[in-house]
Design a protein that fits this description.
By secondary structure, this protein is an all-alpha fold. The chain has eleven helices and no strands. It is 79% helix and 0% strand.
């Protein structure tokens, strides 16, 4: 059993809760309140800024040019494709470029992104990949699952989102990260594998918290 299979098998109950979250299901059946998705788009944009930094850290920690190049590709894909989609897509929801740039992160966005940056800066390349993978892997799985719902990919507001994350191009990037984690974990001790599993579990939990934060449009409790 590969390490990624071990992770998927062990964390499947949490994984399925992420997929079953009403925010995710609302994207698939088209019933999600547009204001909730608007909130999500802004917070996800802020999240992606730090997520992109992790790929830059990955290139720095990589031991070979090929891996460096792939992280550079992931960085480019995040900054110039995924975030571009957010800016263009945001127009459908009345989000201006200025609003994206001046937005403030929610507590969950801040906690999630800062946890990953902490792991990425202070740990090994394997630790970094374990931290970033749940987001990429789960979005790909969710995208594929939602794309099978009749008419979901053609929905006026949510179809483009489903198309992007179910795409072959996005899937290839996710598969590369999965394979890299398997390679990095292959000859490690059981203690190290357990540690990697803990990182992966934490960011999988953060994924659920992010969906929940967006669904409830949660900001700081002291904000008016």
């Amino acid at each position: 059993m590969t390490f990624s299979h071990r992770l998927h098998e062990k964390l499947l109950p949490i994984w399925r809760k992420n997929h079953a979250h009403p925010f995710v299901q609302g994207i698939g059946d088209g019933t999600l309140d547009k204001e909730k998705f608007r909130f999500f788009m802004i917070q996800d944009y802020l999240y992606l800024i730090d997520y992109a930094k992790l790929f830059a850290l990955g290139a720095m920690k990589a031991k070979d040019v090929e891996t460096m190049g792939k992280f550079a590709e992931l960085l480019d894909s995040t900054l110039n494709e995924e975030m571009s989609l957010h800016r263009e897509y945001g127009k459908k929801f009345g989000i201006t470029a200025k609003e994206f740039e001046q937005a403030k992160p929610s507590p969950t966005t801040l906690a999630y992104s800062h946890y990953m940056l902490h792991v990425g800066q202070n740990g090994t390349l394997a630790h970094l990949v374990a931290a970033v993978l749940p987001c990429m892997w789960s979005y790909w799985e969710i995208g594929k699952e939602l794309s099978e719902i009749p008419g979901a990919k053609e929905h006026d507001f949510y179809g483009e989102w489903i198309q992007m994350y179910s795409s072959e191009e996005f899937g290839q990037l996710a598969e590369w990260c999965i394979e890299l984690l398997d390679k990095l974990a292959e000859n490690t001790t059981e203690t190290e594998k357990t540690y990697l599993e803990g990182i992966f579990l934490n960011t999988t939990r953060f994924e659920y918290m992010f969906w929940d934060m967006a669904y409830n449009q949660e900001m700081w409790p002291t904000d008016e």
